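Appendix C: a fully annotated inverse folding record. The material below is reproduced so that readers can follow the format used throughout the book. The structure is listed first as C-alpha coordinates, followed by the designed sequence.
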Protein backbone atom coordinates (compact mmCIF):
# COMPACT_ATOMS: atom_id res chain seq x y z
CA UNK A 1 0.00 0.00 0.00
CA UNK A 2 1.61 3.33 -1.08
CA UNK A 3 2.48 5.84 1.61
CA UNK A 4 0.51 9.10 1.67
CA UNK A 5 2.59 12.01 0.46
CA UNK A 6 3.45 14.74 2.93
CA UNK A 7 1.37 17.80 2.04
CA UNK A 8 3.29 21.07 1.83
CA UNK A 9 2.11 24.68 1.65
CA UNK A 10 4.48 27.47 0.58
CA UNK A 11 4.25 31.00 1.98
CA UNK A 12 6.54 33.50 0.24
CA UNK A 13 5.79 36.83 -1.47
CA UNK A 14 8.52 36.41 -4.11
CA UNK A 15 6.60 34.65 -6.87
CA UNK A 16 9.57 33.47 -8.92
CA UNK A 17 11.40 32.11 -5.87
CA UNK A 18 8.22 30.48 -4.61
CA UNK A 19 7.53 28.82 -7.95
CA UNK A 20 11.07 27.47 -8.10
CA UNK A 21 10.76 26.23 -4.54
CA UNK A 22 7.48 24.51 -5.40
CA UNK A 23 9.20 22.64 -8.21
CA UNK A 24 12.01 21.56 -5.87
CA UNK A 25 9.56 20.36 -3.22
CA UNK A 26 7.65 18.36 -5.85
CA UNK A 27 10.87 16.82 -7.16
CA UNK A 28 11.70 15.73 -3.60
CA UNK A 29 8.51 13.67 -3.62
CA UNK A 30 6.15 15.88 -1.63
CA UNK A 31 2.75 17.24 -2.60
CA UNK A 32 2.46 21.01 -2.90
CA UNK A 33 -1.03 21.66 -1.57
CA UNK A 34 -1.02 25.38 -2.37
CA UNK A 35 1.15 28.48 -2.59
CA UNK A 36 0.45 31.85 -0.97
CA UNK A 37 1.99 35.31 -0.77
CA UNK A 38 1.44 36.09 2.93
CA UNK A 39 -0.43 35.03 6.04
CA UNK A 40 -3.78 36.42 4.98
CA UNK A 41 -3.51 34.59 1.68
CA UNK A 42 -2.60 31.38 3.52
CA UNK A 43 -5.57 31.67 5.89
CA UNK A 44 -7.93 32.19 2.96
CA UNK A 45 -6.64 29.04 1.25
CA UNK A 46 -6.71 26.73 4.26
CA UNK A 47 -9.20 23.89 4.01
CA UNK A 48 -9.89 22.39 7.43
CA UNK A 49 -10.68 19.07 5.73
CA UNK A 50 -7.35 19.04 3.88
CA UNK A 51 -4.74 20.89 5.92
CA UNK A 52 -1.05 20.92 4.98
CA UNK A 53 1.28 18.81 7.11
CA UNK A 54 4.07 21.38 6.85
CA UNK A 55 4.13 25.06 5.89
CA UNK A 56 7.43 26.30 4.49
CA UNK A 57 7.27 29.84 5.84
CA UNK A 58 9.17 32.90 4.72
CA UNK A 59 9.54 35.62 7.35
CA UNK A 60 9.58 38.94 5.54
CA UNK A 61 6.27 39.07 3.65
CA UNK A 62 4.15 42.09 2.84
CA UNK A 63 0.90 42.04 4.79
CA UNK A 64 0.80 39.32 7.44
CA UNK A 65 4.43 38.27 7.96
CA UNK A 66 5.95 34.94 8.94
CA UNK A 67 6.01 35.66 12.66
CA UNK A 68 2.32 36.58 12.80
CA UNK A 69 1.30 33.71 10.54
CA UNK A 70 3.26 31.12 12.50
CA UNK A 71 1.76 32.32 15.79
CA UNK A 72 -1.72 32.22 14.22
CA UNK A 73 -1.21 28.65 13.02
CA UNK A 74 0.03 27.54 16.44
CA UNK A 75 -3.11 29.00 18.00
CA UNK A 76 -5.65 27.84 15.41
CA UNK A 77 -4.13 24.75 13.77
CA UNK A 78 -1.47 23.38 16.16
CA UNK A 79 -1.06 20.15 14.18
CA UNK A 80 0.21 22.10 11.14
CA UNK A 81 3.98 22.25 11.46
CA UNK A 82 5.88 25.37 10.38
CA UNK A 83 9.39 25.17 8.96
CA UNK A 84 10.88 28.64 8.56
CA UNK A 85 12.76 29.15 5.29
CA UNK A 86 14.45 32.53 5.25
CA UNK A 87 17.38 34.60 4.04
CA UNK A 88 17.95 35.85 7.59
CA UNK A 89 20.54 34.01 9.66
CA UNK A 90 20.58 36.31 12.70
CA UNK A 91 19.69 34.83 16.06
CA UNK A 92 16.90 37.31 16.78
CA UNK A 93 14.94 36.14 13.72
CA UNK A 94 15.57 32.49 14.56
CA UNK A 95 14.61 32.82 18.22
CA UNK A 96 11.52 34.85 17.39
CA UNK A 97 10.31 32.31 14.83
CA UNK A 98 10.88 29.43 17.25
CA UNK A 99 9.02 31.29 19.99
CA UNK A 100 6.14 31.89 17.57
CA UNK A 101 5.91 28.13 17.08
CA UNK A 102 8.19 27.19 14.17
CA UNK A 103 9.51 23.63 14.43
CA UNK A 104 12.71 24.34 12.53
CA UNK A 105 14.61 27.01 10.61
CA UNK A 106 16.70 26.73 7.45
CA UNK A 107 18.13 29.23 5.00
CA UNK A 108 16.84 29.70 1.46
CA UNK A 109 20.26 28.80 0.12
CA UNK A 110 20.17 25.39 1.83
CA UNK A 111 20.98 22.25 -0.14
CA UNK A 112 17.92 20.20 -1.25
CA UNK A 113 19.22 17.37 0.94
CA UNK A 114 18.99 19.64 3.99
CA UNK A 115 15.48 20.71 3.01
CA UNK A 116 14.37 17.09 2.74
CA UNK A 117 15.98 16.29 6.12
CA UNK A 118 14.28 19.26 7.74
CA UNK A 119 10.85 18.24 6.44
CA UNK A 120 11.39 14.62 7.52
CA UNK A 121 12.57 15.74 10.97
CA UNK A 122 9.55 17.91 11.69
CA UNK A 123 7.26 15.10 10.49
CA UNK A 124 8.90 12.29 12.47
CA UNK A 125 10.53 14.06 15.45
CA UNK A 126 8.41 17.17 15.73
CA UNK A 127 11.42 19.49 15.39
CA UNK A 128 14.48 20.03 13.19
CA UNK A 129 17.69 20.97 14.98
CA UNK A 130 19.99 22.31 12.28
CA UNK A 131 23.59 23.31 12.93
CA UNK A 132 22.55 26.92 12.29
CA UNK A 133 19.76 26.89 14.85
CA UNK A 134 21.76 25.03 17.50
CA UNK A 135 24.64 27.48 17.18
CA UNK A 136 22.45 30.55 17.40
CA UNK A 137 20.53 29.16 20.36
CA UNK A 138 23.72 28.42 22.27
CA UNK A 139 25.03 31.92 21.63
CA UNK A 140 21.83 33.55 22.84
CA UNK A 141 20.67 31.08 25.46
CA UNK A 142 21.27 33.36 28.41
CA UNK A 143 19.55 36.30 26.73
CA UNK A 144 16.34 34.76 25.40
CA UNK A 145 13.40 36.28 27.25
CA UNK A 146 11.27 33.64 28.87
CA UNK A 147 13.20 30.74 27.39
CA UNK A 148 13.95 29.37 30.84
CA UNK A 149 10.34 29.58 31.94
CA UNK A 150 10.81 32.70 34.05
CA UNK A 151 12.06 32.07 37.59
CA UNK A 152 11.39 28.34 37.64
CA UNK A 153 14.29 26.21 38.89
CA UNK A 154 15.22 22.52 38.92
CA UNK A 155 14.02 22.37 42.52
CA UNK A 156 10.47 22.92 41.25
CA UNK A 157 10.61 19.61 39.35
CA UNK A 158 10.36 16.03 40.55
CA UNK A 159 12.75 13.24 39.54
CA UNK A 160 10.51 11.88 36.79
CA UNK A 161 10.08 15.32 35.25
CA UNK A 162 13.85 15.83 35.24
CA UNK A 163 14.33 12.41 33.64
CA UNK A 164 11.77 13.33 30.98
CA UNK A 165 13.51 16.68 30.34
CA UNK A 166 16.85 14.94 29.76
CA UNK A 167 15.28 12.62 27.20
CA UNK A 168 13.27 15.44 25.59
CA UNK A 169 16.56 17.23 24.92
CA UNK A 170 17.76 14.25 22.89
CA UNK A 171 16.84 13.17 19.36
CA UNK A 172 14.33 10.65 20.69
CA UNK A 173 10.69 10.90 19.64
CA UNK A 174 8.05 11.13 22.35
CA UNK A 175 7.12 7.51 21.61
CA UNK A 176 10.76 6.43 22.14
CA UNK A 177 10.89 8.47 25.36
CA UNK A 178 7.83 6.56 26.58
CA UNK A 179 9.62 3.26 25.89
CA UNK A 180 12.76 4.46 27.69
CA UNK A 181 10.77 5.49 30.76
CA UNK A 182 8.57 2.37 30.60
CA UNK A 183 5.46 4.54 30.40
CA UNK A 184 2.60 4.87 27.95
CA UNK A 185 2.74 7.56 25.24
CA UNK A 186 -0.33 9.14 26.85
CA UNK A 187 1.52 9.46 30.17
CA UNK A 188 4.47 11.05 28.38
CA UNK A 189 2.09 13.52 26.73
CA UNK A 190 0.88 14.32 30.23
CA UNK A 191 4.45 15.00 31.44
CA UNK A 192 5.07 17.23 28.43
CA UNK A 193 1.86 19.23 28.81
CA UNK A 194 2.35 19.60 32.56
CA UNK A 195 5.87 20.96 32.01
CA UNK A 196 4.65 23.32 29.30
CA UNK A 197 2.20 24.76 31.82
CA UNK A 198 4.49 24.68 34.85
CA UNK A 199 7.41 26.33 33.03
CA UNK A 200 5.31 28.60 30.82
CA UNK A 201 6.88 27.02 27.73
CA UNK A 202 5.17 26.54 24.38
CA UNK A 203 7.21 23.89 22.55
CA UNK A 204 9.97 21.29 22.77
CA UNK A 205 12.70 23.79 21.88
CA UNK A 206 11.69 25.75 24.97
CA UNK A 207 12.07 22.62 27.10
CA UNK A 208 15.56 22.08 25.67
CA UNK A 209 16.54 25.68 26.40
CA UNK A 210 15.29 25.36 29.98
CA UNK A 211 17.17 22.07 30.44
CA UNK A 212 20.43 23.63 29.19
CA UNK A 213 19.98 26.82 31.19
CA UNK A 214 19.43 24.83 34.40
CA UNK A 215 22.35 22.47 33.74
CA UNK A 216 20.09 19.42 33.40
CA UNK A 217 21.70 18.66 30.03
CA UNK A 218 24.73 19.93 28.20
CA UNK A 219 25.12 20.41 24.45
CA UNK A 220 28.61 19.68 23.22
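Designed amino acids, in order:
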Amino acid sequence: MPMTKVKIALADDHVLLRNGFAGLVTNLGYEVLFECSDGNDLISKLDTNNLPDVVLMDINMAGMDGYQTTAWLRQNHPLVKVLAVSMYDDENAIIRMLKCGAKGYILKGADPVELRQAIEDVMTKGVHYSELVTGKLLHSIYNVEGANGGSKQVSDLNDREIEFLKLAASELTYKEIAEKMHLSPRTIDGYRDALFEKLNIKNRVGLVLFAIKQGIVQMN
